[in-house]
Amino acid sequence: MKNFWLSLCVLWIPASAIVLHAQVNPYKDGTPGVTGYRSEVLAEVMIQENKFERLADAIPADKYSWRPTPDARSVAEVFLHVATANYNLYKLVGTPPPAGIDIQKLEKSTSDKAKVIATLKDSYAHGRKAITAMPDTDLEKSFDWFGGKNTERGVLIFIVRHGAEHLGQSIAYARMIGVVPPWTDDFKKPQKQEAPAKPKQ
Q: Dihedrals φ, ψ of 34, to 5°?
């Protein structure tokens, strides 16, 4: 009996690990405390965050300094560039970076895998907090933007678009170094196993 429960525990550990790394689905599970347009943006940000974290986890630590050409960002620098943008851009919708974050130096601050992933996670937590905190009445607030005008609604679109651009870059980097994005198997249908052929009588 003791062996039976031990076997169950051993089976349960990998299963729980898989759940922790599964694709998030805010369209099904919701975005607590946020509704309307901000909820739609937050859903996209949450999915993007999940993909970044899973990809960052899948890339080996010794590849974090890899870059496709000498003048391109490294793997670590791409992830930290996204983190920098998360800290920098959300100040435009009312949430400044936390004290102690050096925006100017963050992108090149480390190539240590654990530190890069922690920074990326913290930056997305900052972004989710910013979207949740901003009132809907601020969405139409306008300000100067690259020689023209934009609104806080438009800034949220830009933030999602910017992150998506660099997620695509990170996917390309991963494939170039032989890493398959881990979510590619999320929605594959299980293969039906054919019944063994009956022996001829």
A: -130, 135
The CATH number covering residue 43 comes to 1.20.120.450
* Angstrom distance (rounded) from CA 91 to CA 97: 7
- What is the DSSP code (8-state) at residue 93? G
Domain of residue 65 covers: 24-180
| Per-10-residue mean pLDDT, the chain, length 201 | 42 36 74 87 96 98 98 98 97 94 96 98 97 94 94 97 98 97 75 58 57
38 falls within a domain: yes
Q: Determine if the pTM surpasses 0.90.
A: no
Please list, residue by residue across 93-114, b when 16 or more beta carbons sit within 10 angstroms of its beta carbon and e when fewer do.
Answer: bebebeeebeeeebbebbbebe
User: In this structure, is residue 151 part of a structural domain?
Assistant: yes
Q: Is 7 domain-assigned? A: no
Q: Looking at 84-146, which runs of residues are DSSP E strands?
A: 142-145
How many domains does the chain divide into? 1
Tally Cβ neighbours within 10 Å of residue 155: 20
Helix, strand, coil shares of the chain, percent, nearest 5, are 60, 5, 35
Cβ-contact 95, 123 below 8 angstroms: no
Whether residue 14 lies inside any domain: the answer is: no
The rounded distance, in Å, linking the Cα atoms of 74 and 108 is: 9
